[in-house]
Amino acid sequence: MFPAMTLARRAAILAGAAGAAALVTACGAASDPGAAPTKTVTATASAPSSPSASAPSPTATTGSGTTVAAAGPGPCVSSDLQASIGQGGAAAGTFYQLLVLTNTSGSACTLYGYPGVSFVTGLGGSVIGAPAARNSLIPDTLVTLPSGGAASALVGITDTGNFPPSVCRPGTADWLQIYPPGAYGSLYLQLSSSVCTRPGKKFMTVTAVHAGTSNSF
User: Fold this and answer.
1) How many structural domains does the chain have?
2) Angle at 192 (CA atoms; ends 27, 112), nearest 5 degrees
3) Is residue 10 part of a domain?
């Protein structure tokens, strides 16, 4: 049984209500994304053009009424994390796949907001088409990851057959580049897909991160 289908349908309904024909493209002629092999590599890259908003800082009030920053885990950096593919599903011509970020460091860290996600030509390669647009299905929430803990974001990729060839310029891609929320180093994940290659064409979306590896809420 596949509990992810509920969220996939909710994502598709939300996208339609928002007029998100600008949602995404994807694995039309490609193999099932859920069956694609995965591989992760950590690399240092230049800062993304629109880094995710910083996580809210926890605060505490002293006996005198003064508010001070409370100690707690710091933000996760790319070298703390490993990317992998989780559950998948499909609804209304869009393929949905969980992007899972696991804390592989020895201490807790936090994630907040949206990861940056785009298909690229290879490790350190050029972006294909356009980066994923933000899908507001999941509210921004500060997620604390203990060592070994995981958080997820839902990536939606629209079937390239939903667009005229002249608009989409369909092609194939084998790699995702991922910037964890608020981080400036990138992770690479192997995922083969049919994509729109036309620059500026929004063919993919991504939600904010949430705790765990389930896409059923």
Assistant:
1) 1
2) 90
3) yes
Q: Are 72 and 179 in contact (CB under 8 A)?
A: no
φ, ψ of residue 4 to 5 degrees: the values are -70, -20
Q: Is 169 within the bounds of a domain?
A: yes
Bridge partners, residue 207, by sequence: none
Residue type, 161: G
CA distance 87 to 59: 36
d(CA 55, CA 57): 6
Which phi and psi (to 5°) does residue 81 adopt? -120, 155
- Say which amino acid occupies 55: A
pLDDT digits (tens, 9 = 90+) for 183-217: 989 999 999 999 999 887 888 999 999 999 976 54
pTM, entire model? 0.70
Closest CA to 100 of 55, 62, 64, 154: 154
Query: Taking the alpha carbons of 206, 211, 215, 217 in that order, is the dihedral positive or negative?
Result: negative
Expressed as residue numbers, the domain containing 193 is 4-44+73-211
| Residue pLDDT, tens place only, 14-25 | 444 444 333 333
Cβ 119 vs Cβ 204: under 8 Å:
yes
What burial class does residue 99 get, using C-beta atoms within 10 Å of its C-beta: 0-12 exposed, 13-18 middle, 19+ buried? Answer: buried
